[in-house]
What we know:
The protein contains ten helices and ten strands. The chain is of the alpha/beta class. The chain has one domain (9-281): Alanine racemase (TIM Barrel, Alpha-Beta Barrel). An eight-stranded parallel sheet has the order 9-8-7-6-5-2-1-10. The protein has a two-stranded parallel sheet with strand order 3-4. Pyridoxal-5'-phosphate binds next to β10 and α10.
Amino acid sequence: MVAYMEHKNLANETIDDERKQQIADGVHKVLDGIAAAESDAGRTAGSVRLLAATKTRDVGEIMAAIDAGVRMIGENRPQEIEVKAPGLVRQCASRGFALGEAMNSGTEDAQAAAAALGNASAADLTPLPFHLIGQLQSNKINKVLPHVTTIESVDNLALAQKIAKRAVTRGITVGVLLEVNESGEESKSGCEPDEAADLAAQIAELDGLHLEGLMTIGAHVHDEAVIRRGFAHLRETRDALLASGTPALADCRELSMGMTQDMAIAISEGSTIVRVGTAIFGERAFI
Ligand SMILES: *Cc1c(COP(=O)(O)O)cnc(C)c1O
C-alpha cells in the first residue's frame, strides 16, 4: 500500500456539486486549449486526444471528468488501478462506456460492468481507453492487464517480453507505447533516444503486443527550446519508424507527449495524446 492511499479513499464515488463543477470547468478549459493549439499549429481539429492523468483522484472525481467530455484516462500505479477499477467500470457502463479491458477480460471488472448494464448489451457500449502511464515493475504486470488497454511506459525489451508472455497466456493483445527519455534527466524513466528505433522494431515483433507509438515526458526546464527539441526528436523517431515500411511498425503512430505545463509546445510538435492532470483536477495533495 502506498502511504497516501491511507489518507484518501480512492474508491469513493460521490463528490459534491462544487467539486464536480470545478472539474468540468477544468476539462472544458483543457479541451479549448487543445483546440486552440491545434489551430495555431495548423493541425486538423480533433487530431489530438486528451488523456486525463488521474493519479490521486478518486472514482467520483474521475467520473466528473468523463461526464465533462474526457474519453481516455491514465493511471500511474497498479495499486490505484486495483482500488478504482471496479467502481470506474461500473460507473462507466451505466453511462454507456466500456472502460479498458472490462468487457472482454472475464474478470470482476466484467461482472461489475454487466451488473451496471441491466438490459443493455456489452456491444452497445463505447470503448473508453484506460492507459498505464507510470513505471511498471514486472511483478505487477498481472495486476494491470485485466484493466488497461495500453501500457505507455514500456522502456526495455525484457519488460516488453514479460508483458507479451502474460498477454499471450491471457489470450489478449495489449497496446504499448515505447517510452523514450528525450530530456536525458536521470530521474526519468524511458530508453535512450538513440536506442529507441531498434527497441521499437524488436518490441513490435512480439506476439501479444501491439506497438501503437512513442511516449515521452518533457524536460523539466524553463527553456522552451529544450523542451521543444525533445518533442521534435520523438516525432522524428516516429516518422522514421513509419517510413521504414516494416509491417509490424505500421501502427506506430501515436506520440504521447505534453502535460499541463507543456501541452501547447507538444501539440505544435505533433503530439497525438496529451496527458493532463493538474489543469483538469487542480494541484495534487499527494504525489
Ligand atoms: C502526472 C502525470 C501527468 C500529468 O501531469 P500534470 O502536470 O498534472 O498535467 C502526465 N504524465 C505522466 C506520466 C504523469 O505521471
